[in-house]
Design brief:
Chains A, B: It comes from Gordonia soli NBRC 108243. Chains A, B: This is Bacterial bifunctional deaminase-reductase C-terminal domain-containing protein. Chains A, B: Residues 4-188 form the Bacterial bifunctional deaminase-reductase C-terminal domain. 2 copies of one chain form a homodimer. Chain A is 25% helix and 24% strand. With 214 residues, chain A is of the alpha/beta class. Chain A is globular, with a radius of gyration of 17 Å. The two termini of chain A are 13 Å apart. The A-B interface holds A 12-14, 174, 176-181, 184, 186-193, 198-203, 206-208, 210, 212 and B 12-14, 174, 176-181, 184, 186-193, 198-203, 206-208, 210, 212. The structure holds NADP nicotinamide-adenine-dinucleotide phosphate (NAP) (2 copies).
Chain lengths: 214, 214
């Protein structure tokens, strides 16, 4: 059975985006602190950075990082996460992930101004669709061919799926930092926990991995 | 050395107060869900409820509950936590905790309309003071006689001490629920974590115990 999954890195005060980008540091210091435990893992280093040396942390954080990629048959993401907002004037923008993105499956980018699909190396194809959460999910489930569907982010997109009750598993890696500004994951989700089982695991990095699943 | 400590129960979305009180249920369902893991502990049952049967949970949640009362020589709380706001027209209000409150030390209630001190059974005396965070703390440290000072709550009061850099140890028990409304603990605390060590422990109840200490 296809499960709909979300994995996000958030701060203790619930922010899933950062705000300290500059032209010199396009991701900002905060992004580094928010995702530090994740990008330090062996899984991230090999799967996303292509580092085959075996470097990187193992243990709790790496276990979750590795689950992140398991069994995913299709991904849905928002236009901002793909980079359409930051690169609006570049008609040839192909995402942040280089020629061979780590997804290796169809990726559906939600956008009010869809473009032609972009096939990439390694199994990823970016499709652009203008659809509500349920319709987008139907499309992704069909494309996933029995695999799971991940709602990749950002928070604006993820919240639509959470609010519509479409998510089977929500994993957040909570960094012990207070960002104080950005887009909150948790807004308008009062009572979300009903019908889910919550489990929580702490990693030596200080990260708390909280999972709601049903 | 006196340490200044905070222990609060908060929801995953950062709320430290509840909003569903009714005349029939003066604490509301949300308060029960927010504090469930804490009030179920053996320590809470014996120390706060006076239940000498030995009932209650043991383990991670109880370890933190028991630390809550250790070594505290004085407490500071806000007028709302003491109940002055909800009982503004009762000049004889003596707090929510019965004749023998669990504090067993001097308690300084911050208020813009101070009253006469109220000595209670078991070592607790409620003093009412109109002071900023630093002055209130100086008063409490002197009264604590070498013991620690706890800033008991609510969030409006606690945030003043956090923002002023006066807190040595902040422990939050994070319940895996989303309240969606109330007073947030974390507002305006960007960068609070600097200078603190963060540790996180998960309890089987689903509660995450996060501690910042310096
Ligand atoms: N913390 C994490 O783990 C994590 C993970 C992923 C991303 N991020 C961060 O999240 C940020 C982006 O998040 P975000 O919340 O600002 O935006 P987002 O969710 O990535 O994208 C939102 C945009 O997608 C389009 N869209 C969303 N739903 C749609 C629908 N149903 N139909 C049509 N179009 C739709 C709209 O763009 P248009 O109207 O322009 O078409 C909307 O403005 C990035 O900074 C990224 O770094 C964080
Ligand atoms: N989650 C938890 O673990 C926890 C723990 C404790 C309490 N609580 C909850 O917190 C709620 C109350 O919190 P709250 O944030 O609304 O209020 P609070 O912090 O308890 O009280 C705030 C009030 O205290 C007085 N005050 C605060 N600082 C002062 C200062 N420097 N000088 C003079 N007066 C000062 C002011 O009252 P006046 O202007 O009226 O004098 C102010 O409105 C309650 O519902 C309680 O259940 C939760």
């Amino acid at each position: 059975m296809t499960r709909v999954r979300v994995d996000l890195n958030i701060s203790l005060d619930g922010f899933a985006t950062t705000t300290d980008q500059t032209p010199e540091k396009p991701f900002g210091e905060d992004w580094g602190r928010l995702t530090d435990a994740y990008v330090s893992t062996r899984t991230f280093r090999s799967r996303v950075l292509g580092d085959t040396s075996g470097a990187g942390t193992t243990g709790v954080d790496d276990d979750f990082a590795s689950r992140y990629f398991d069994e995913i048959g299709a991904e849905i993401m928002g236009a901002a996460m793909f980079g359409l907002h930051a690169n609006a004037d570049d008609p040839d923008w192909r995402g942040w992930w280089g020629d061979e993105p780590p997804f290796r499956c169809p990726v559906f980018v939600l956008s009010h101004t869809p473009r032609e699909p972009i096939p990439m190396k390694g199994g990823t194809t970016f499709h652009f669709i203008d659809a509500d959460a349920q319709d987008a999910l139907n499309t992704a489930v069909a494309a996933a061919d029995g695999g799971d569907v991940r709602i990749g982010g950002g928070p604006t997109t993820v919240r639509q799926f959470l609010r519509a009750g479409l998510v089977d598993e929500l994993h957040v890696a909570i960094a012990p930092i207070l960002l104080g500004r950005g887009i909150r994951l948790w807004d308008d989700l009062r009572g979300f926990e009903e019908g889910y089982r919550a489990t929580s695991v702490s990693a030596p990095s200080g990260t708390t991995h909280l999972t709601f699943s049903r």
